[in-house]
Write a structure and sequence with these properties.
- By secondary structure, the chain is of the alpha/beta class.
- It has a single domain, classed as Arginase, Chain A.
- The protein is about 35% helix and about 15% strand.
- The chain contains ten helices and eight strands.
- Strands 2-1-3-8-7-4-5-6 form an eight-stranded parallel sheet, sandwiched between helices.
- Strand 7, helix 9 and strand 8 form a beta-alpha-beta unit.
- Helix 3 runs parallel beside helix 4, helix 8 packs parallel to helix 9 and helix 9 packs parallel to helix 10.
């Protein structure tokens, strides 16, 4: 594994949904030892601390039921700029924070990729497809919209214009098991690669993941990995407000991270939806740190024994 400069960017975003608690996520990752885990693998680690959202006015024309749209737009501006800058200096790791942080992180890294003439690919490890727009979401929770935004869908009133939308065929959603009707209909009309847990049960996680990574390799692209806590089964990762039974097992998740590591393709990473208020003695934070370490060179048999096992 090539040694990298890992840039930790604290994104205590808690505006993308009504249930609070994700603002504690970045510091929970730090307490769980993410910097130490990456440094032990030989990587340089720079911690940028926790960012704050830009101040913006509430958007005109936005649906009235949206949860904290102005704050989420402010976070999008801040994280877009931070992502674009960090890509010049290393591999940014966004410590979330709810999944609306990806409105900014992905558009920022995509801007950087465009400036270097490289195509941007996105691997979305999540129980949900997050392909809503502010006008299609029934809940008003903007953490369900980032894939729609980064793909260039219309309807994001007041949000920064997406200068470099990620083409549909360069997006892979892996681990799906909770997709509502409107999203399913929209996704079926796209070229986005969608793999639900049935597909993983039938053929394993390696087959669809390797197929997508091969596309990235052939295109010479940058790869952004967005890892949501609810990609994992809540039996061992309970600290998320959107638990959906039947998620990836510990072995499947580590295999996915090791395959990503072996590919050498990952250029940026989100760790999102950790809600420490719902955790059990830091269990989920430690699991997510272990997965990040696996994506950056640690093997399963190197993992230290944890107090909760």
């Amino acid at each position: 594994m090539t040694q990298k400069t890992c840039i930790l960017i604290g994104a205590p975003v808690d505006s993308g949904k009504a249930r609070q608690g994700c603002l504690m996520g970045p510091d929970a990752y730090r307490v769980a030892g993410i910097a130490e885990a990456l440094a032990d693998l030989g990587h340089s680690v720079i911690d940028m601390g926790n960012l704050a959202p830009a101040k913006v006015e509430p958007p005109n024309g936005a649906p009235k039921h949206l949860v904290k749209p102005a704050e989420t737009i402010g976070w999008t501006v801040t994280l877009r700029d931070a992502a674009q800058d960090a890509m010049k200096n290393g591999l940014p790791i966004f410590l979330g924070g709810d999944h609306s942080l990806s409105l900014g992180s992905v558009t920022g890294v995509a801007n950087h990729a465009a400036s270097t003439g490289r195509p941007q690919f996105v691997l979305w490890l999540d129980a949900h497809s997050d392909y809503h727009t502010p006008h299609s979401t029934a809940s008003g929770n903007l953490h369900g919209t980032p894939v729609g935004y980064l793909a260039g869908l219309a309807g994001f009133d007041g949000f920064p214009k997406v200068k470099n939308p990620v083409p549909q065929e360069q997006i892979c959603l892996l681990g799906l098991r909770s997709v509502d009707g409107p999203e399913r209909e929209m996704l079926q009309a796209t070229k986005i690669h969608c793999h639900d847990m049935r597909a993983i049960d039938e053929s394993g996680i390696a087959k669809p993941l390797n197929a997508f990574l091969e596309l990235v390799t052939r295109a010479g692209g940058d790869l952004h990995v967005s890892l949501d806590v609810d990609f994992l089964d809540p039996s061992f990762a309970p600290a998320v407000g959107t638990t959906v039974p039947g998620g990836a097992t510990m072995r499947e998740a580590h295999l996915a991270m090791e395959i990503i590591c072996d590919s050498g393709l990952m250029t940026s990473l989100d760790l999102v939806e950790l809600n420490p208020f719902l955790d059990e003695r830091g269990r989920t934070a430690q699991v997510m740190v272990d997965l990040a370490a696996s994506a950056l060179g640690r093997r399963v048999f190197d993992r230290p024994t944890r107090a909760y096992t």
